[in-house]
């Protein structure tokens, strides 16, 4: 349906995954099953599992109206009889009596999911099989609906307040025939469903639909979809207000259901029914399917039931009196008395219960199914009569009850009843004054849009609903419909077929005139096989003569005035009949009464070579045509002139044809094979059965030669010549077998392919071959595939490159349904790696010798691996599965690509820590990575660094799109390390294909986290002090690509306003670095004065590289003080403060503080006051971070301030040539002036 629209997104397609089968019960619709929800089926609507409708009459009659007989004739009657025969055989047969005893598996219905076949001739002629249609309608009238249409249905609908979104409640009423639970599978095909409606598409909903439905659909390709016989009637549009996307039935032109098409292991008439049809009918009509139901209104009571227990019958007569023995069976018997007298009189009492009523028909009761139902043909007074032959039926009705008799008698009053449920019987019957089902042919006209109406049937409106009889003690708000009974309601169920066969068809489009045609057309036929002659088309030419003869029996023998082999134009010559190619025609009188035709010997007429039934050959009362192929090989006299005659007989006597003639066997004729429109396994266990005639001849013996052609007639086998000699098994003149098998099949791989025609002959000449008549072709000739090689074009060696063109070579690769890549041991991957065929990108040579797979057709990477992990290939076709030999196993891959490299810790993005302890788990992203055999780290230009990880290896996880390296398990070597902070690396993936390198944008640095070993320097670290005017050497590992070296505090934290040194600044200062050491050049730290500290172990060195950092040990080997020699300017520059007069260089203590200016003062640990006479004061220990009271240091170490709070040495005040000596942490002294340049101090 190309205009189906989805109404809302909240509907979820549903499908049950469990493989199962199921059926739908049909019956009167409930109130909510209305035309708005597309419940328009004339049989009603789907019912719940215990709400089905069924017949409870065990025997039904059917008959044919004169209109049907006139149009369809005896062949049409036989077709309908065959449909009824399917159901009669289903209910009772030689294997079981009653479907209750039937086992779906043991009785041949296992896997019987599809019983259809196609007669190509009928299909091309657009003929429909009336037998199959009748069978489908009968199954509907037995209570089964079309599961392909009614499995899913709308139960209710609600909308939001604005009506812009609709929420449908959907019910699954498709019942599993084993568990009686709902299932979404029908004949082992899983179905889903979708919403269809008649509203224009819009989101949200703007226009409400007037009709809506849930349409079943499936993606199954097994061929078993839409196969239920219960769905046949829906091959015709009419019971729906919406268009179907898929017609919910396989039935159509040329399609016929037949027991010979059964696949469940048995081929009796009942096996025409599919598994689900059989399961549904068994469920409905089994005797233990109990429901409360009424009897058909036409039923009357014959023998009442006996409710009394057997012990009470001798005392209280039952409704049938006292029977001994009970010849009626059931529960009417009694135990005889022991003596003559009756019971003694007693005292009358009054019962509180009412007295028993006279016996009546037990109508509504708990009953099981009628499991031995049968249909009986009951005729009218003649084939064309109008008076029905009345009859009657009686049967025993079995029901369950607790009814008892209320007894009031002398001396007692009590109820004789049943304490629990018990079976009872009553004999009932009905008079039959008209058939229950009647078949009619009529002109049904056309629909309003001009489409002919093919058939019509009586709707289910008169079926009886027993729902009120099946509710409990509480009255429900909603009473569901069903269960119920199927009844005729006093009028026959009528099946009417349109007489679409009268006249010719002329198409006029407005031309001045149109030349008419004389090609007749017909819709109806009876198809009983796949061959061109395996059908009867209605009406046929001889039907009226046959009917007339049956109505007015012959009173004279027939006469034959001429025997002809040219259609009756001229007498046959003495040696001219080729029995396989010519029609033998009899012209005469009273020929419609002929019951048999004999081919006799001319000399001895008592010798009868063949007796023929003329059914279908009588064209009129004056003409009989015996088609080619009817005469068998016994009539062949090798063309001896005048050796044969023809004799026709009716019930009165014979007539011998005036002409004597010879009979030869012409070229053989094939009418069909066991593989028509099917696949033939040329190496299988079953030979190819060939049907036709002329397989034996007096002169040339039996079949000896074979030729195989394609549909266009091109020779396939033999490779050259006309035909090839083979050994046939000739069963009869009409059947032969062409051997198959694994050893020496007659049909070889030369014939593999689709649409093959076989031709046969009794000799080797081209003229001896059977004709290329319109026989159905063999759909496929093939066998189990063999695979000889698998390769990717333009690639040497056995390889399967998914992104290349792959070629699979072998035999019998035609009809391939699946290509699967498997492990080297032949087992499948999970999930499987398959290409289901047909598929875009896959080409199969018509002769089955090669399959070509286009690049990137197989997108599943499940089989991809490195070259060391090989795969094999399986090809499955309609016959079997072939697997490539282990010796030819191959690698599967596609060209790898690397698109991204990640996995770096957030603390060092873009840098790879390759260490085992703290390393990053590297993530390589791309495609086709399962082909990888090695992972390399290369430099930015792609040059190898001689460090890699081979694959497969523990610690590396590979998928098609990613490679994850667990660095705690496996590591790259030191060759991958970046040798400086400006050196980057890239990832390269090595595979059997071209190497794949990550793009330059995905480069990164590689390093180990740095480690510390020791500190040294040009001035040493005497007394654990670093003098900034010397070098500092940091020893350790992982130092080559350091990004920063800095002096930090004792806790490892940076010192405020002090930055570290990078590689570039280090080189500029004369430093150096390598993998194991970093040398900081003299005075490299530009903010060195801020580093100075005299606190022991208060400074450490921190080195950072792209993946981490390390701080020197917090002890004497790694912690130290920092200083540099203090420096001063001139005296005027050096001293300042409120108490210092720069012009006189006099410091007056009484005036204020003394300030000393210079540099590197934060490294000072002692201050000495020089008296100018060669002596100095005692040292004053200082620490810029915690100086003594009265002394302070500026933050930048350029100034020391001494206030009155500090007690200057008394000897230093009051004299000239005074100075200050600053002693650093390195014990270097610096004096504020040179000799003779001191200041003067005064109190």
List keywords for this structure.
Immunoglobulin-like, disordered N terminus, 7% helix, 6-stranded mixed beta sheet, mainly beta, 1243 residues, 91 strands, 9 helices, 7-stranded mixed beta sheet
Structure description:
The N terminus is likely disordered. The longest helix is centred in the first third of the chain and has 26 residues. The chain is mainly β. The strands form 28 sheets. Strands 82, 83, 85, 86, 89, 90 and 91 form a 7-stranded mixed sheet that branches. Strands 41, 45, 46, 47, 50 and 51 form a 6-stranded mixed sheet that branches. A 5-stranded mixed sheet has the order 18-4-23-27-24, covered by helices on one side. Helix 1 crosses helix 4 and helix 1 packs across helix 7. Among the domains are: 124 residues, Immunoglobulins (Immunoglobulin-like, Sandwich); 114 residues, Immunoglobulin-like (Sandwich), CATH 2.60.40; 99 residues, Sandwich (Immunoglobulin-like), CATH 2.60.40; 111 residues, Immunoglobulin-like (Sandwich); 113 residues, Immunoglobulin-like (Sandwich), CATH 2.60.40; 112 residues, Immunoglobulin-like, CATH 2.60.40. The chain is elongated. Helices cover 7% and strands 33% of the residues.
